[in-house]
Write a structure and sequence with these properties.
82% helix; mainly alpha
C-alpha cells in the first residue's frame, strides 16, 4: 500500500496535471465543442488515465526500468484519452469533420506532452 506521502504527491500531481491539460485543451480542442466540454475534458480525461500512470505502471516496471515505464505510461495516456474523448464527444454526437477531429486528437496529445514536460521539471 502506498504511503500517505505518495497519495499526497499523487493528488498534487493530479491537480497540476488537470490545470496544465485543461489549459491546453481549452485552446486546442476544436470550437465545435462548447466551453463546458473543453473544461470537463481536462478533468475527466486525466481522471481516466492518471491512476494507471501512478498506481499500475510503476508496479509493472522495476525502479531500474524508468525508460520503459515512461514510454509505456506516456504512450498509454494520450492514446487512451483520445479514444475516451472520441467515444464520448465525437463518435455519435457530432457530424464527422476530419480536420476538427484531427485537431481534437492533436490537442489531447499536446496536453499530455505539456503535462509530462512540466512534470519532469518538477520531479528532477
Amino acid at each position: 500500500m502506498p504511503s500517505t506521502d505518495y497519495w499526497q504527491s499523487m493528488l498534487l500531481g493530479y491537480l497540476i496535471t488537470v490545470l496544465i491539460e485543461t489549459s491546453v485543451l481549452w485552446w486546442g480542442l476544436s470550437r465545435r465543442h462548447p466551453p463546458h466540454v473543453r473544461l470537463w475534458a481536462g478533468v475527466w480525461l486525466t481522471a481516466g488515465t492518471y491512476p494507471f500512470v501512478w498506481l499500475v505502471f510503476p508496479a509493472l516496471f522495476p525502479a531500474g526500468e524508468r525508460g520503459w515505464y515512461l514510454f509505456t505510461a506516456e504512450t498509454f495516456a494520450p492514446a487512451c484519452e483520445a479514444w475516451m474523448f472520441w467515444g464520448a464527444f465525437v463518435r455519435h454526437r457530432i457530424a464527422p469533420e476530419g480536420t476538427a477531429t484531427r485537431r481534437d486528437m492533436l490537442a489531447i496529445v499536446a496536453a499530455n506532452l505539456c503535462s509530462f514536460l512540466v512534470g519532469t521539471q518538477i520531479t528532477v
